[in-house]
Design brief:
heterodimer; A: about 525 residues; alpha+beta; Helix Hairpins; Heat Shock Protein 90; five-stranded mixed sheet; 14 strands; rod-shaped; B: about 220 residues; alpha/beta; Rossmann fold; Arc Repressor Mutant, subunit A; 2 domains; five-stranded parallel sheet; 8 helices
Chain lengths: ~525, ~220
């Protein structure tokens, strides 16, 4: 099957739609994730800063007693509840890494030892971790995925999980100026952590598991994919309908074009029905159909006319011979029959030759044999051919052509002149006059045949050179002719690269003007 | 039976007229539409053969104008064989349509058929008592016996038989039996009537003195 417009439209539409939907899903999903991550990071950073800002030295009285304690539990911290493994918290070894290079000794230490400077510096006291009031209130509620841990050198001095519902510790309450450095954010497995440094070489890590977000994003992704698929399906269906609608006028035009045949050339595409883009195509097609119809009509008429012209002499021969052979005839009767047959066959011969010339000319195979001859002599010869008719009609023919050498097909020019002169004599009144004259210009010459006949009404002049065209519908047998004379004249002049026109005034006479290029050879080559 | 042929091709006109004459018809010819129409209007023809493309007056115009005055059967004989032309011709008032080239026997048969139909007598055989006329073979037999008749005698008998029980005037006889070129003496009809009576019996043809002749069926 050849590619149909509808299918290629549909394919392009589908490809575009898929690209748009995928882009929407990907961009949407990514931006949602990024926004959420930024939100999480901001929360964590704020929490870390808050926590770091809340680190203070213990009250002087408690300082001694607290010395040596490995850790101070923040209020509400329940050790038993807290297990890092709950959210698969990996080793905090990696806490080293962000700081080892740029922060020197102010680094968080490994929980289980192995840290380089663990024993080198001994803390004189353990700082107090002041939790914000809201944290303190719900610090024990360890249902969330959030956690914090505070180191003082290698010791964890506070750690807990806290619920995400817990209001954020107060930027409002603790000054951020204590922590000029923004907390560092790092990703550790599925955990997101913010690291901040407090006074007294403390390090605060606030983190949370991204597991709930991941689950949420996964759900979001599924919903997005599902919605995208639905949008895609609706879009494809809509595209199919639209492409179908858009090719409908094409289908309609095709149907009309299919229905148009030689026997039914009257049908036309309804231009009003089609859209602007197709309207011009419809107009062009209708124009082509019009020309085709006109050509066919002419062809049919030409064939009918030609067969009609052939039928008349043929029926003479047929009837004459039938009558002659129906019984014994006298020699005189046979002679008359044969003479009638000869007249008819001569007429048929002339007609067939004319038709052949027309056919050859229409096929572009009217070849010219160019010779040099004197135009005045050629006119004289043609006048000689019609002198009998002219005498019969009492018409005078005057040759006003000056002797001039001409390059053309002498035989065809003779035929042209004879046809024009025959018409000029035939359609002249008794005592009328025919004048032939020529005019030579630089690159062409004009030959005119002027008569004093009845003239031709203007509406007929355009059709004069059509085969079998007759000015009067009634055939004037008295005038004779086959109706091909002027059509042949036109073909001959065309073959020479010239033009033939007619100027006429009703009642005053007609002039047939033949313009031939001086350089006939060149004109002919350009035609070939 | 008298026929008018309107045809502008002289060789064809001559051949058609010749063959119709040989078929026993009285034939007139016209070479153009105008003279054809005037002849058809003046004379009561049994049939008219009409070409369509005629000088002076188009065949269809001849037909149209003729139909205003006469019901003469018209056969169009033309080279125009298109369906539209045939329909236009028949709808224009023609009774038959034949295209060129044509067969002469067909033309003759069609003209006879047209004349029979116009007379309201579609059968080609006419029965007058014991006399049978075969209008196709132009023969007459009396009680099974062939009666040899001259063409004129047969035509006269056919004319009277066609108008059986009706009076046929001498003018009518002249109109239907002789063409325009005939200039025979007026008593030639009496001679033919006498001959027919001699061959078929005295009582077959009745004479209405000063009016004409008639045959009783």
């Amino acid at each position: 099957m050849r590619r149909s417009i509808q299918w290629s439209l549909q394919l392009w539409h589908a490809a575009l739609l898929v690209a748009i939907v995928v882009a929407f899903v990907v961009v949407g999903h990514t931006s949602v994730r990024r926004m959420r991550m930024q939100q999480i990071d901001a929360e964590l950073a704020q929490s870390a800063q808050t926590l770091a800002a809340g680190i203070q030295p213990p009250p002087p009285g408690a300082r001694r007693s607290q010395e040596g304690e490995r850790r101070r539990e923040p209020p509400g911290f329940d050790d038993r509840d807290f297990s890092m493994s709950d959210f698969d918290l990996p080793d905090l070894d990696a806490l080293d890494s962000p700081d080892s290079t740029d922060r020197g000794e102010r680094r968080p230490f490994d929980r289980d030892g192995g840290g380089t400077g663990r024993r080198t510096r001994r803390a004189p006291f353990t700082p107090d971790v002041h939790l914000p009031a809201e944290w303190a209130a719900s610090g024990g509620d360890a249902g969330g995925h959030h956690y914090y841990r505070v180191w003082h050198f290698e010791n964890v001095i506070a750690e807990s999980r806290y619920a995400p519902e817990t209001p954020h510790p107060g930027v409002r309450r603790w000054s951020m100026q204590a922590q000029p450095e923004p907390p560092k954010i790092r990703q550790r497995g599925d955990l997101r952590e913010a690291i901040a440094y407090g006074d007294f070489d403390t390090c605060v890590v606030v983190g949370r598991s991204l597991a709930p977000e991941r689950a949420q994003w996964w759900r979001l992704g599924l919903i997005q994919i599902g919605t995208g698929a639905a949008v895609l399906l609706v879009g494809l269906a809509g595209g199919w309908v639209i492409s179908r609608r858009s090719v409908r006028p094409i289908r309609a035009m095709t149907r009309v074009a299919e229905n148009i045949s030689a026997s039914n050339l009257s049908q036309r595409i309804d231009v009003a029905m089609t859209q602007a883009e197709l309207r011009s195509l419809a107009v062009v097609l209708n124009g082509a159909f019009d020309r085709l119809s006109e050509a066919l009509r002419r062809q049919v008429r030409f064939t009918a006319d030609a067969s009609h012209e052939l039928r008349t002499p043929l029926s003479v021969i047929h009837t004459q011979t039938q009558l002659a052979l129906s019984r014994e005839r006298s020699a005189e009767e046979y002679r008359r029959t044969i003479e009638a047959c000869q007249r008819s066959s001569t007429r048929m011969k002339g007609l067939v030759e004319s038709l052949l010339l027309l056919a050859r000319s229409d096929a572009g195979r009217l070849t010219l044999e160019l010779t040099r001859f004197d135009l005045r002599v050629a006119v004289d010869e043609a006048i000689g051919m019609v002198s009998h008719l002219a005498t019969e009609r009492n018409v005078t023919i005057v040759n006003d052509v000056a002797p001039m050498e001409t390059l053309a097909d002498a035989g065809r020019i003779h035929q042209l002149l004879t046809n024009l002169l025959t018409n000029a004599v035939r359609y002249n009144h008794s005592g009328g006059r025919v004048r032939v004259f020529a005019d030579v210009a630089a690159d062409d010459m004009t030959l005119c045949v002027e008569d004093t006949g009845a003239g031709i009404p203007a509406e007929h002049i355009g059709h004069l050179f059509e085969p079998f065209y007759r000015v009067d519908d009634d055939r004037n047998r008295d005038a004779g002719g086959t109706g091909l004379g002027l059509a042949i004249c036109k073909r001959i002049v065309d073959a020479h690269g010239g033009t033939i026109t007619c100027e006429s005034r009703v009642g005053a006479g007609s002039t047939f003007i033949v313009r031939l290029p001086r350089d006939v050879g060149a004109g002919m080559i350009s035609r070939a | 039976m008298r026929v008018l042929v309107i045809e502008d091709e002289p060789d064809l006109l001559q051949a058609v007229m010749g063959s119709l004459r040989e078929a026993g018809m009285a034939v007139d010819g016209a070479a153009d539409g105008k003279s054809g129409l005037s002849k058809a209007r003046i004379t009561e023809y049994d049939a008219v053969v009409l070409d369509l493309m005629l000088p002076e007056l188009n065949g269809m115009d001849v037909l149209r104008q003729l139909r205003r005055h006469r019901d003469t059967p018209v056969l169009i004989l033309t080279a125009r064989d298109g369906l539209d032309d045939r329909i236009a011709g028949l709808d224009g008032g023609a009774d038959d349509y034949l295209t060129k080239p044509f067969e002469l026997p067909e033309l003759i048969a069609r003209l006879r058929a047209l004349a029979r139909r116009a007379a309201g007598r579609p059968s080609p055989v006419i029965h007058i008592g014991d006399i049978h006329l075969n209008t196709v073979r132009r023969t007459v037999d009396l009680r099974g016996q062939d009666i040899p008749l001259t063409p004129t005698e047969y035509s006269l008998l056919e004319l009277l038989a066609t108008n059986a029980d009706g009076l046929v005037s001498r003018t009518q006889i002249y109109e239907h039996l002789f063409d325009e070129t005939d200039d025979r003496l007026s008593n030639v009809v009496d001679v033919h009537i006498a001959n027919l009576r001699r061959k078929l019996g005295r009582d077959v043809i009745k004479t209405r003195r000063g009016e004409g002749y008639m045959i009783h069926a």
